[in-house]
Design brief:
This protein is mainly beta. It contains one helix and eleven strands; from the N terminus they run E-E-H-E-E-E-E-E-E-E-E-E. Strands 5, 6, 8, 9 and 10 form a five-stranded antiparallel beta sheet that branches. Strands 4-3-11-7 form a four-stranded antiparallel beta sheet, with no helix packed on it. Strands 1-2 form a two-stranded antiparallel sheet. A hairpin with a 3-residue loop joins strand 9 and strand 10 (119-121). The longest helix has 6 residues, at 21-26.
C-alpha cells in the first residue's frame, strides 16, 4: 500500500473559522521522551530522541535525531515518579542545570528532588521530558 501526503494552507473547523498550519506546527512538541532512569536508561517511548546517555545519578543526556535551529530557542519541561518516596518533598524537577547543557543536538537534564531535610539527584523509575522550538 502506498503512503500519501496531505498538504494544506489552513485547517477549517466546520463551525469555527480556520487555524493557520504554522500555529499547529510551531505549537507542537519537537521532542518528547518517557524513559526508565534506573540502571542503564532505556526509553519506554520517544519522539526525535535517538539515544539517551547516562551522565550520572539522576542525570541524562538526550541526543536528538533532528537538531534544533538554535540552542537558546527552545524550552523543555519534565516530571518523574518512583515507588521510592522522598518524604516531605517540596519539589521534583527534571531540567537543565546549566546553560551549557542546552545544545542544538542534545539536552542534558537532572532529575532532582528537594525536601526539608535533603536535596539531590535520583534515578527515578519513570522520567519524561518534552520540548518545543524550531528545528534546523
Amino acid at each position: 500500500m502506498a503512503l500519501g501526503k496531505i498538504k494544506a494552507d489552513t485547517l477549517e473547523h466546520s463551525t469555527a473559522g480556520s487555524v493557520d498550519t504554522q500555529y499547529v506546527v510551531n505549537g507542537s512538541a519537537k521532542f518528547w521522551i518517557a524513559h526508565n532512569g534506573q540502571g542503564t536508561p532505556s526509553a519506554y517511548d520517544s519522539f526525535n530522541v535517538g539515544s539517551i546517555t547516562d551522565v550520572g545519578q539522576g542525570n541524562y543526556k538526550y541526543n536528538f535525531t533532528n537538531n534544533f535551529s538554535t540552542a537558546k530557542g527552545y524550552w523543555n519541561t519534565g516530571l518523574m515518579s518512583s515507588s521510592t518516596d522522598h518524604n516531605g518533598t517540596f519539589i521534583k524537577l527534571c531540567m537543565p542545570m546549566n546553560e551549557a547543557d542546552v545544545l542544538t543536538s542534545s539536552l542534558e537534564v537532572s532529575a532532582t528532588y528537594s525536601s526539608s531535610s535533603s536535596t539531590g539527584d535520583f534515578d527515578y523509575e519513570y522520567v519524561n521530558n518534552a520540548g518545543v522550538g524550531d528545528l534546523a
